[in-house]
Amino acid sequence: MKTIGKLPQEVSAHITIDPENNDIVYGGSYDGFLTRYNHKTNTLRSVSVWPDNPMGHGAEDMKYRFQWNFPMFFSKHNTKKLYTFSNHVHVTTNEGQSWKVISPDLTRNDSTKLKSSGGPITQDNTSVEYYCTIFAAAESPVTEGILWVGSDDGLIHISRNGGESWENITPKGMPEWMMINSIEPSVYDEGTCYIAGTKYKTGDFTPYLYKTNDYGKTWKKITNGIPSEHFTRVLREDPKKKGFLYAGTETGLYVSYNDGANWQSLQLNLPIVPITDLKAKDNNLIVATQGRSLWILDDLSLLHQLSNIKNEENILFKPKDTYRMKGYSNSESLTSGTNHPSGVVTYFYVKNPSEKEIKLSYLNSKNDTIKSVSTKNKKDKFNVKEGSNMFVWDTRGNAAEKLDGMILWWASLNAPKAVPGAYKVVLSVDDENYSQDFNIVKNPNSESDVAGMQQQFDFITDINLTIDKAHTSIKNIRKINSQLASFQEQYKGDDRVKELVEKAKKLSEDFSEIEKALYQTQNKSGQDPLNFPIKLTNKLGHLNSLVGVGDFPPTEQDIAVKNELTAQINSELDKFNTLVSEEIKGFNEAFNSLNLEYLIVEDEK
């Protein structure tokens, strides 16, 4: 964090970002106080609508009345156009160098409410406590110039021509002096808009939500399902699913699947707390609460899909597109937020999982299985409970094998992350299969391209194949050496097989030399590699770790070192294969010719 300049003490954290130039930020409050911050030059500039210091003056003395969190936003249709709101509508197209008033007073402008703030003992006139102000405003995301405006004293106006003319469209029958707390023009229809109002300051805790489909000519109250004292603060529309609405109330969150005809609680693990604002972004619902931090409901597509599901016993939900990126999830904390799970979040429902094999498989576009987990697979086992389940695939396949007790210094045996592209997940419940397609997408901040990521993927995959072969050979070496040691122990001192015992000893030494070339067998603890040099598979695994740091393809040096190490490992593996195919074969033939008893090897405890 860095300080970008000194602002007046009374300025609140009220900002909007210029969509055309992310370096510019506008902050506000304090009777229309606005600043423009240029990130490139690290400079601040005052661009207030009317920079008349209001301190000590009542509302009756002010040219424009701004409240603490007056609305301001850039037009989605013209990124040079910034709107802000007092009791009038103001607009600038030159970064605040000049402002134009494009409306009359859109409040009741009741003189009895425009007095000095505070009581007879202590006046409190800082300008942000003014009444008769515009409290909520928005431009239609469908059509430029359709502006919806709501005041804190209960009026709603619309302009359908960019502010040239205005029409009072306050709902008939709506209680007077309603604070219009939020306005939400529809993303699907220019004539549709939703509003949330409050009257709690007058002791009325009734929820007030209204909808119009005809530019405000008629309104319908839409609060069925919300308890009578859960007064409403905000209503937002789902930008991906028509008819889906979210409402924030004083006591929690509600959802409607039928355009407000009915509401039901969407509380889940959210605390019982006032919901002051909502924002649907990238198919997530961001929830601003009063006193309990920001919360996010991940992946609204689950709600979208649930609305189309009847009474299926097993359900596999379509995973949302997942960015290929680094990161991890930290555990839940009482003092900090919890990161989103890193990987492909897969939700599924199984009505009766008892004694059934349940498997999740992830396949690429060629239908090659990259990763599978199963309730009955010891290596990649996962647990499934009755009802809803979640599994996070880290986008990696199977790692190279690491033997028990292996000490590796700065080496990775992990499979590479999947390359951006089309994938499929399959849920198997015994013999029943359910599949969903999904995409892994490139991190937009990545400096590499998909071709480079594919080179990285192939490079690490090739490394792991070599390491896997080497570690499998080491596992076989240890098994063979155990049998050879048992043979030597069983037949020591038996002159009939003296030469064969010596051959077993020599074979064991030869196999051990191969293992020692592949892996540092003297390493017994994490710090031992400081004393005993790491060997070939550790070195190759180090390349996996280095090249897997970002999204980049391997360098020429990475490729050269990999080729050199791979050749050395393959040389040792050739020795191993020769010993098995020739020396062990000869040993077994000699063993059988002597009609010896088979080795007795005790089971491991």
Write a structural description.
The protein is of the alpha+beta class. It has three domains: 15-242 and 259-264, 7 Propeller (Methylamine Dehydrogenase, Chain H), CATH 2.130.10; 314-442, Macroglobulin (MG2) domain (Immunoglobulin-like), CATH 2.60.40; 450-593. 20% of the residues lie in helices and 27% in strands. The chain has five helices and 31 strands. The strands form eight sheets. The protein has a five-stranded mixed β-sheet, with no helix packed on it. Strands 1-2-3-4 form a four-stranded antiparallel β-sheet, with no helix packed on it. Strands 5-6-7-8 form a four-stranded antiparallel β-sheet, with no helix packed on it. A hairpin with a 4-residue loop joins β14 (193-199) and β15. The model is unreliable at 599-605 (pLDDT under 50).
- Please bin the fraction of helical residues: 10-25%
Shape: elongated
Question: What's the total count of β strands?
Answer: 31
Head-to-tail CA distance between termini: 57 Å
CATH topology of the largest domain: Methylamine Dehydrogenase, Chain H
Let me know the largest β-sheet. 5 strands, mixed
Radius of gyration: 35 Å
> What's the mean pLDDT score?
90
| Number of helical regions | 5
What's the CATH class label of the largest domain? Mainly Beta
Tally the structural domains: 3
CATH homology superfamily name of the largest domain: YVTN repeat-like/Quinoprotein amine dehydrogenase
Question: Which architecture of the largest domain does the CATH hierarchy give at level 2?
Answer: 7 Propeller
> What would you call the structural class?
alpha+beta
Tell me the fraction of residues in β-strands, as a range: 25-35%
